[in-house]
Fold these 2 entries.
Entry 1:
Amino acid sequence: MGFVRTTPPRPVEVTAVLPELAPLARPAIRLHPRPGSPSVRDSSVGGPLLWPTEEPWPHCEDAHLHVDTGFRRSPTEVRLQNRLQSRWRPDERPPVLTPEEEALKARNAAWLAERLDAGPPWPAECPVPMLPVAQLFLRDIPLLRPPGQADLLQILWCPYEHEPNYKPSTALFWRSAAEVVDILATPPEPYEADYPGYVPEPCVLAPEAITDYPNSLDLNPELRRMLEDWNRWQAAGAGVDSSYAEYPRDFYSIHLGNAPGWKVGGWPPWGRTDPNPRYCAVCEVRMVPLLTIASWEWDGGEGHSWAPQEDQAAALAGSHYAGQDPSQPTKVEVGSTDNMQIYLCPVSPEHPHTDLIQ
């Protein structure tokens, strides 16, 4: 990995206030994706996959609604727009395109011409080629528990919302990197995406091992009552701002529990619903969090305490011009700025995975 991101020390040691939380600590790896140019040999978000030419590229076979919402654009157009936005300035001077961006612009012009020539109703493709979401090598993410001799995890999704939960459908593949000899150079891409937030910006990673504590909703009633006991916080000498005296649980939720952003392992985020356990469709074992796909790396306001030390200045800067928000480096936006959680069977990683929007 070519760069480092470091989560600042938490303002309070969790177990100093609630020693009862110590048994609930889980290892996690914050991925810290940042825009870059990953290769097929790199762990990445939205980057190219180490995909063998002899293996068919995954396509989504589900039914897709093809109502023109005005949001749909080709993945090429989305990526080009993201690149240009990253260089926009308040003086409104247009950015100069690189040769690669000129090629993207030409590809998108050809796509638009094809669309206009076809006329309404707009072309509908089915099955839909899936888009890369994440590629994770075991050497970089040692928390992965791959089956057999596999050392590589690849996750893709269909960039359309699917009923009944209105989220992209996902596909997961384990493989041995050493067995991929002939690499697919130009994978197929979908004709369009439902929303720009379903086209991940290619990002390199700076994996960081952390200790993750549960969302307060995952705690039993007794532990939640302990969190809400201001006297306990004071007795621990935590030095928590007195503005939290009425609702100390908020301090835990904002600064201590459930690390935000893209992460492997750890605890799942909740909010859209109460905790909703997932069970393996094959063996009925309770599934565990594999990957959190986050719309934001940290929340605004006080939530910027989770911004890496290397990004604190940008996080504290407040407003960001033309969509250049450092807390959304992947440009992914799932649900209503929610998170997608990928779950895995702990007995056998080869059993079907499941996903959930929270």
Note: The chain has seven helices and 14 strands.
Entry 2:
Amino acid sequence: MQVIETLAEGLKREIKVVIPAKDMENKMNERLADVKDKVRINGFRPGKVPVAHLKKVYGKSIMADLVNEIVREQPTQILSGRGEKSATQPEVAMTEDKDEADKILAAEQDFEFTLSYEVLPPIELKSVKGIKITREVVDISDEEVNEQVLKVAESARSYETKKGKAADGDRVTMDYVGKVDGEAFEGGTDQGAELVLGSGRFIPGFEDQLAGVKAGDEKTITVTFPADYPAKNLAGKEATFDVTVKEVAAPADVEINDELAKKLGLESADRLKEIVRGQIESQYGSLTRQKVKRQILDQLDEMYKFETPKSLVEAEYNGIWSQVNNDLAQSGKTFEDEDTTEEKAKEEYKTLAERRVRLGLVLSEIGEKAGVEVSEDEMQRAIYEQLRQYPGQEKQILEFFRSQPGAAASIRAPIFEEKVIDHLLTEIDVTDKKVTKEELLADEEGEGSEKTKKAAPKKKAAAKAEASEGEEADAPKKKAAPKKKASEGDAE
């Protein structure tokens, strides 16, 4: 087999591979010898079929299998022999001429194919001793814990039927039918729906018109859906709701005690407070982690400047750009609404894609040199988390991970990255700084990190595009007809 480099330009490589027809014929003959004693052909005793006849019957199919095996296996071996790593799966090109293909399958012509790929750039790691970051830490007060416990208690509070009119804080149980232009619309009908007045769970104006209703009342409520309402067929439209009030109930007093805790499945009020404090610590810890990681990545970005494989950058950009356009479509906005243009947004997201690819390569090299590994247990836990998000589809998801090697890699990559960050935190200069909750929650765009200032849309698409560098939760949309009961939906 001849391996001839035909292009070496930057990271681009092209390799021409030539396997002489005689070598292909020898491989075919070896396969024919293997099957000679196994095949059954009418007119011949087992093991007595002439090789020439076997070649006539099976030669082309065996050669086709050989070609497929070579194309599947040789690229990896060739790159390994050259000491190269391909950024993506090498592209394989071979003749499309039918006559030439027939000659190759008949072992009358050399088998030639071309590999095209980009190599991963060599990265010379630099010392990280000069990296200095500030880790923001929030002290959680008893007052904040008590506030959150109170919200939990309010979400679990009980209600007692009352005969009077509904007031703020009361729970109204009702049936309703929503209509637009006199026609009932999908999702606008419910029976036994519960709504706590003042909770803000329905679209603006709905709850206000329920104030003063009594059990047995029938009322038509007129509201206008917000212009940015998720259901495009309802956005900005006026709607009426024919409401029948079934019950009005007043809230019972809220008490934070062991009885409340037991109602929530806990042994005591102290245990409830302990769990709530842990949840707050986890939330703040996640924000702190995001900011710490962003600082590390920004400084690594300044330290490393090298050519990145265009194929990886293009793939990363396509993913980001798809997310940006999906977000714009869902919000009903345009690039102009976000104070930018499509051309400018494309340019900035291409820069972001290149940054993410470069940092990914740097983190991969750091992790490899440090011996960072993702264990089988960590992979299993991550896959289990994926399964939890799609109840009832566990079998299909597991099959997807088994059949798609890239799927498992997409699970492994973020785990590996976080472990590399953990490794870096043991080697760099970290200074803890006490901050207030407001300071921790402050928008990072105002903190001087130009890398985080992306155009269109700043709050949503850019945050998702830089998911590995920090996350931002999307605010839930208000619904016209929520199905949750008040006791399930009012707690934060």
Note: The longest strand covers residues 183-196.
